[in-house]
Structures are given as C-alpha cells and as structure tokens.
Amino acid sequence: MGTNGKGSTGRFLASILTQLNANVLHYSSPHIVKFNERIWINGSDVSDKVLEDAHEKIQRILDNELLEKLTYFEYTTLLGLFLSDTRDYLVLEAGLGGEFDATNVVPNDLTIVTTIGLDHQNFLGDTISLIASTKMRSCDTQFILSDQIYDEVYQVKKDVLSTKREILKKKYILNDESEKLPTYLQNNLQTALSVLDFLGFKNFPYTLPKLFGRFERISDNIIIDVGHNPLAAEAIAKELEKEKKKYILVYNSYADKDYADVLTILKPYISEIQIIECDDLRIVEKRNLIEKIEDLSLMVNDFDIMHLEKDNHYLVFGSFLVVENFLKGYVKV
Fold first, then answer.
1. Can you state the angle between helices 286-295 and 259-266, rounded to 10 degrees?
2. Is the dihedral of CA 250, 252, 257, 263 positive or negative?
3. Which residues are CB-neighbours of 135 under 8 A, at least 6 positions away?
4. What is the pTM of this model?
5. What are 227-236's pLDDT values in tens digits?
6. Omega of the bond prior to 30 within 30 degrees of 0, cis?
7. Domains of the chain, residue spans
8. Which helix (H) or strand (E) element contains residue 73?
9. Class for domain 216-330, per CATH?
C-alpha cells in the first residue's frame, strides 16, 4: 500500500514469482479497459469463464442480502480472495488504503509501503503524516518501505511501526532491460526484488512484465500513463526532462484531485493541453479546468482522436478513466 507505485510494484513481484514457478494471484485496481485486469493469475488476466464460475459459487455460499450490502470494491475484493485459494502467493493491492480498506480483512505476512504523497485527502487525511499513519496501521507483523520523498513518512514509521519487523529495501544491479525503465519504475522494481530476496529467492534471471498504462509508449509519439496526482506528475516530469521535447497533454481530472498542482508541475514539458471528454459525475467542471489552464498561460483545446498528428508528441495522463477513453478511440483509428 501507498499513494503511488502499488500496481507496478505488485506486478513486478507477481510476474517474477510466476517466472520462478510459483502459483500467484495479483489483485489490483482499478482497471483500464476490462474488469479482468484486476485479477491476474500466473501471467494472464483472469478469464470471463473463471470469473463467472467464481461469481456463481459465491452466490451459492453467501446470502443475497449480505452480498447486496457490499460495495463494488468490496465485492471485487471478495472475488479476488475467493480465487486466491490454493495459491502459493497472494499479492494484494490496497484500494484507498490503510486500516479502513476492504483488503485489510486479510492478515498480511509482509506489508509493502510504496511512495506516499497527498491524495484522497477527504478520506485519508489532509497531511502526509495523517495519510501515512492511516496506511501504515494496516501492517500486521512485517513491512518493507520503498523510497519516500517526504521526511514525515519516516517519522510516522518510527511512531506507528516501532513494534513491527522492518525488512530493509536493498539496491540491486538491474539487467539491461530494467535499466531502460523510467526512474520511478526502477525504484518499484528494486522494492519487488528486495521482497523476493526476503522470500528466499536469490540470483535468478527475470524478464519484465508489460506494465499497462505506466509510462507506456503505445507508438513512437504517444505515451499513456494512469497517474493522477502531483506525486505521479513529478515522476513523469523527471522522465520528460530527459527527452528535450514538448508534448501535447491529453488531460482531464476528477474534481477532488489537485489538478492545478499537476498542471504546474508538467507545464515546462507541454506545449498545449487538449481536454478529453470523460462521462463521470466526479470529473471537474470543464470551465473550472479551463480557468486553471489559462491561469498557467497554456494553450487549451478540445481533444479529437481523429486529429492526432504523427509529427506531434502526446502524453495521455490524468486518471485510469482518461487513458481508458483515449484507448477506446485510438484502437478504432
């Protein structure tokens, strides 16, 4: 659990365990295109047939009145837990996080604390210390702390996890394939490798899994990334700084996100913002988003998938929903 990096760290870990012949389920959320992405078993998204069989068995075991009380995320978590039976490893990604999360019903043997930043403040707290405390209190016995950018996280670790066993994150020499990853993904891979070392796996070869929507180049001139907060924007900015070119940002945001801060961070690397339509009640009012963009003296237009130009470079960023909507149109072109 953490603010950023949960999905990629978990996928690195689950993928390499699978390569080491372990039987692994990786549960994550949300999905980008298809629900099946949330439950990944031994190298593949769960099939429709396996999902349907699990759903029917759960319906037979549990009373409908009880099931109807579960939220979407709670029932999804239940499906993942049901399908994790008989697996060697369950890599379980927290949702919003911490002690209040549906995933916290499962006793964990090792808690991975990825990078913590400001996000979901209305639910987790409005300071780094409060957010870190809420997340870290879900640790049962042992934890490993990924690289952090806020000193408050380390202080909270001392206060909240003083009675827990810490597994130290190590630094490994990465293979040639891994050296090409963005810096923030290299950090997440190092965390996963440290967990594998803790589990007793030493000196093994590995190949990287495809990380759908994590600084993914889907063509020579298009990068997609499901990041949606200032912490993710900072990581993306560090990668764009290496490229010495300007990007058209295909963007939208949920109203409760700090989109002004996100756009301020990305401003030096973007030439224009194109707002992609997202049909969701949580999306920021378009006029409010345009006002922030104009405050930053950036050009703004509506996004049209039919007007993608091969001579322009595009960064599709803002949320899982933004990437999903872009890909729905992109595959049709």
1. 40
2. positive
3. 1, 2, 94, 97, 98, 113, 116, 124
4. 0.91
5. 888 989 999 9
6. yes
7. 6-198, 216-330
8. helix 72-83
9. alpha beta
